[in-house]
Amino acid sequence: MSFNSAKEFREVMDQVFTMMSTDPEMGPKLRDAETPQRFEFPDVDLVVNITYAEDGGEQNLRWEWTDDVPWEPEVKMTMDSDVANRYFQGKENVAMAIARRRIKTSGNVKKALALIPITKPIYGRYRALLEERYPHLVA
Prior knowledge:
Elements: H1 6-22, H2 26-33, E1 37-41, E2 46-52, E3 61-64, E4 75-79, H3 81-88, H4 94-99, E5 103-107, H5 109-113, H6 116-119, H7 122-133
Parallel strand pairs: 1-4
Antiparallel strand pairs: 1-2, 2-3, 4-5
């Protein structure tokens, strides 16, 4: 249930972010929440900064796999890639993961937690993606 490489993790997460960003229900709600976030994945040595797209095009979110971005995150989260994988399958409760220190947080965590109900539809789509293309990641 682990990613084969940092490259594979980024490839899968780019697909997930694209699904959320372009979804007609999730995308606009995530954009309108205006909650820039920074995620660090130390086990694969990657950082991604995500914010809302201001141009109102097909993409509702914007993300960069670097800390060199023109926005400041309101929320910072650190977790291993397997925690992120379980979360997107609906198998990791974020509040419990924070309490158990599987996810370390700083900033406006309450605002970030408010996004979780918006993203719940991604669980089934993510599992379908894994079953089709990355069966070794299915939890």
